[in-house]
Write a structure and sequence with these properties.
The complex is a heterodimer of chains A (428) and B (309). Chain A is built from 14 helices and 18 strands. Chain A has 428 residues and is an alpha/beta fold. In chain A, helix 4 crosses helix 7. The two termini of chain A are 26 Å apart. In chain B, the strands form two sheets. In chain B, strands 7-6-5-8-9 form a five-stranded parallel beta sheet. Chain B has a four-stranded parallel beta sheet with strand order 2-1-3-4. The chains are: A alpha/beta (428), B alpha/beta (309).
Chain lengths: 428, 309
Amino acid sequence: MSGTIIRNGRVVDPANKRDEVADLYIADGRIVGSKSEIRNPKSQIEEIDAKGLIVAPGLIDMHVHLREPGFSHKETIESGARAAAAGGFTTIVCMPNTSPVPDNPGTIAWIKDRASAIASVNVLPTGTISKNLAGEELAPIGSLAKVGVVAITDDGHCIQNHEVMRRAVEYARMVGLPVLDHCQDYNLVSNGVVHEGYWSTLLGLPGWPAAGEEVIVMRNILLAELCDHPIHCQHVSTAGSVRLIREARQRGVKISGEVCPHHIALTDEAIQNFDTNYKVNPPLRSQTDVDALLEGIADGTLSILCSDHAPHADFEKEVEFDAAPFGIIGLETELGLFIDLLVQKHARIDITRLIEMYTVEPARLLKLDAGTLLAGVRADVTLIDPALEWTVSVDQFHSASRNSPFDGWKLKGRAVRTLVGGKTVWKL
Amino acid sequence: MTTRWTRKDLLGLRELSADEINFILETADAFKQVGTREIKKVPALRGKTLVNFFVEPSTRTRTSFELAALRLSADVINLSATSSSLTKGETLKDTARNLEALHADILVLRHSSAGAPQFLANRLKASVINAGDGAHEHPTQALLDLYTIREKRGNIAGLRVAILGDILFSRVARSNIFGLLKLGAHVTLVGPSTLIPREFEKLGVQVSHKIDEVLPNADVVNLLRIQHERQRREYFPGIGEYIRLFGLTKERAKLLKPDCLIMHPGPINRGVEIDSVVADGLHSVILDQVTNGLAVRMAVLYLCGGISA
């Protein structure tokens, strides 16, 4: 028996259209409707003072690389989960570019076992679309569904063969799994490492053209329509992609898109010192693209926020720009960056919508029993101080890696406490 | 002379001011003088160690730097990718730190990856001189081009310079564009549309795909090598069509003004971007460039080597 009361916070629960200063009650790891449902003696009830804080449903980051199995020098399920908790996330969805690749039920079972043993937050695995991420033959998607993957994706290995992708989407429809896609045409992008534009031209770095993303976004729209099944475009980065997704959603196509903080916080101008912490895929784009992403977030075209948390060791990043791996870690900075940029600096959405984009929207797409403070659900709760001013320090990260371009940034707003199943797993 | 040199490294011309560029060229004047003496050696870098670290193959630039360093009395070590531990999986950073542990004072780096010299310059106390990084910059090549133009024409401001060929993959083109614009020249890029990114127009250069319209007005034509090894994808249909549209043939050379300079960073593909007789003709200053390269590199090593001391 355990009981917790979170007192006097502003309860923002978009799933239930709730926004009021109230107490939130937790009994035995679940949200309950009233204090009377907490059966503990008064002395054994934990009280958390949330005055001035937002009490939100536990946030979900549906695009995270935990690197385990196979690359535990970059991150582990344990360290990634701690980073998630410290960022305000109670549920994270991990990508399948590990070794071995989770294109089989055994590897998924291993990830789930490992997570339940050592992860402080909920870790939900994705399975691959194709065997060994090769883009040629379908993985056993039905078997992956049975062991509990929440989606299928080949992540950084975008399927180039449209026929394979079409059959994957059709098949996924049968088992009810959404398809997540990293949109990249390998012929158009070739060896591109930065956005093709002014800065790539000046610096002589191989360009990654916006069209290399947009042509696959368009492909996905056509296949989502053809198969009548959701395809979710990961880390949307270009103005053209926003335009295509907006138009398709207006027609009712089951297409969606997510945004990462670095794609709105930075432009390709940041690469001019060849700092590989700014090397990310898709690359940092132009100001026009940033403006379009902000517009897409404001009008609902882009409905989900995430990090694409992509840890790499220092020695891997400290190499020539061409040779460095792509990726930025984000779990411990994304909420602060999005509150600072979207709610405060650019004032494109309010905090309620921001929370909705981190809870209701991914929960709906992935059919999760999460992202709500409805009585009866698991008590995953994030306490947010939207006015707290803080400075990012990579040295204080819980992640095993440090590849963030945001070290030293001053931000306003962050999570201050994270509860999973009613238990505090992290607090500031 | 009002300008002082304060840089440890020479990474590119984009970050230099016109004053700094002119200061290098003026310093090179003095070293060119040295090359005409019977004893061509000065003690400016005596006791200093220079490492010529060429991760990408080069003959002319490497020997030019080596000779420049020897004439400044420096000790010189030559390292290539195959003679270094890079082939054993050592990172560039570790290789460079090992060189520094041997108290190398100046590192001259040629590398296939843009930004590699800056990467090392940020991490080493030694001076880093960019001897060409990917498609980014080749500052000493552009400096010797500027030096040669200035020597032959007296001035650079106001001249019309056409840069012809593969601009997209060319570090020589980039460094020339930055340097020429800073010194007030008018720059026109000429070549196939696939090899000239339009973003260059934002820097204030003109782009043309009609060589016959550009040649009659040019004071300088700088030809770039058509890099066969980089044409793995379809940037243009073939050498035959390239020559027809953009080759500096002997017929086209008749369009040139009598005092127009023809330059080429080498190595030349005779019969491809330039006809053999044109390369050896009256307009050509290609061998002057090589001679001047030595003086310019002596100036750069002297200036940066002095800072690192």
